[in-house]
Amino acid sequence: MSDSGAGLISRYQARLALPTSVKPISLQEGSTPLVCLNSLCDPERGIVVYGKVEGANPTGSFKDRGMTVAITMAAHEGSEAVICASTGNTSAAAAAYAARAGMKAFVVIPDGKIALGKLAQAMMHGARVIQIAGNFDEGMQIVKAMPDEAPVTLVNSVNPYRLQGQKTAAFEIVDSLGRAPDYHFLPVGNAGNISAYWLGYSEYHQTGDLDKLPIMVGCQAAGAAPFVHGKIVADPETVATAIRIGNPQSWDLAQAARSESGGWFVAHEDQLILDAQQYLAQREGIFCEPASAVSVAALISALRESAIPDQSVVVCTLTGHGLKDPDTAISQSPEPLRVAPTLGAVRDAILR
Ligand SMILES: *Cc1c(COP(=O)(O)O)cnc(C)c1O
Fold first, then answer.
1. Residue closest by Cα to atom 13 of ligand 1
2. pLDDT at 295 over 90
3. Model confidence at 17: pLDDT above 70
4. 240, 257, 274, 342: least CB-packed within 10 angstroms?
5. Alpha-carbon span 302 to 318, nearest angstrom
């Protein structure tokens, strides 16, 4: 567990319940930074806030944690191809780990609503990219049925190995804080990750490695908030494309995480999400993608509403890297200044 240079499977093998003979397919994922978000801390009230920077994973999102285990097991079971539906990051991770395993990857993505960096990753790693004239939820229904139609292994988070890998983020947080946070805020789309974190915290609790479980706060975009509404959303819409999901596959597990932890679901408008993304980039030097920033938007609101008691430790999961979605970043930023290529012109631009 101390070998932070190794991948998840070798670091947490005993907790993952995999056959001892597996050969890990790893890019040394995990061991991501847990960074204090100074501008969100409140020393007078004793509130400390950390960001778990999952954009530091090899393909730039937490999906690598699940994918190392899912692809390792697919290879172990003799599979030669994997398939997933994806809003982008699952396809990037599947493509990279499949490449490393010498397997084919097929990724089914929604038409036009995928961030540019994620598409570039899937294409560059050699995945067969299949774009459907539909949304993620429609893609999900198709790929779930595909293992009966073609020799492919499904690597979406309905594959239980995905949650096994992703639960290690909770282990890392407890390993580095020596405790769980009081509140854990994270974005919820298909709801695999909140389920995985709760699994991780609960397992540490059962084995006596953790005294007190955190309260889980699931954060959604207002236009894609099935958990807040308590029902499927037919046409989810949000700038936070990674959580543009209306029919989450891990519905029951996520509901259990909320109720067992005494937590809640909350949704925020796109503009608040983008404001939080920019805040984090400009105040903390952390560039996360829009979907990740919903956890910070929700925390900022909760702090304003005094919903977080004094002396609380809070963790926000920052699920993916901001470079994944350069279009959204550029469109909310001022244009560069355009000046002549002279010392005087650049000096005037600086002193202006
Ligand atoms: C996949 C993803 C999410 C949502 O996670 P779920 O497990 O689908 O709830 C949030 N943010 C980013 C960046 C993602 O890639």
1. 320
2. yes
3. yes
4. 342
5. 17
Q: Which atom of ligand 1 is nearest to the CA of 157?
A: 7
Q: Does this model's pTM top 0.90?
A: yes
pLDDT of residue 1: 42
Q: Which of 90, 190, 245, 255 to mutate to test the pocket of ligand 1 (most atoms within 8 A of CB)?
A: 190
pLDDT at residue 99 in the model: 98
Q: Which helix (H) or strand (E) holds 266?
A: strand 264-268
CA distance 210 to 19: 26
Q: How far is the CA of 103 from the centre of ligand 1 (A)?
A: 24
> Are 191 and 251 a contacting pair, CB within 8 Å?
yes
- Inter-helix orientation angle 192-206/168-177, to 10°: 50
HSE-up (13 A, CA, CB side) for residue 221: 26
d(CA 103, CA 332): 39
As a dihedral over the C-alpha atoms of residue 188, residue 194, residue 196, residue 197, rounded to 10 degrees, the angle is 140
Between the CA of 91 and the centroid of ligand 1 the distance, in Å, is 12
* Tokens of residue 211, six digits: 């005294």
Phi-psi region of 26 (alpha: psi -120 to 50; beta: other; left: phi over 0): beta
245 C-alpha to ligand 1 centroid (Å): 10
3-state secondary structure of 268: strand
Contact 228, 267 (CB under 8 A): yes
C-alpha to C-alpha distance for 255 and 258, rounded to whole angstroms: 5
- The helix (H) or strand (E) run that includes residue 206 is helix 192-206
Using a 6 Å CB cutoff, which residues line ligand 1? 61, 63, 89, 157, 187-193, 242-243, 289, 291-292, 319-320
pLDDT reported for residue 6: 80
Kindly give the distance from the C-alpha atom of residue 187 to the centroid of ligand 1, in angstroms, as a whole number. Answer: 7
How far is the C-alpha of 88 from the C-alpha of 321, rounded, in Å?
Answer: 12
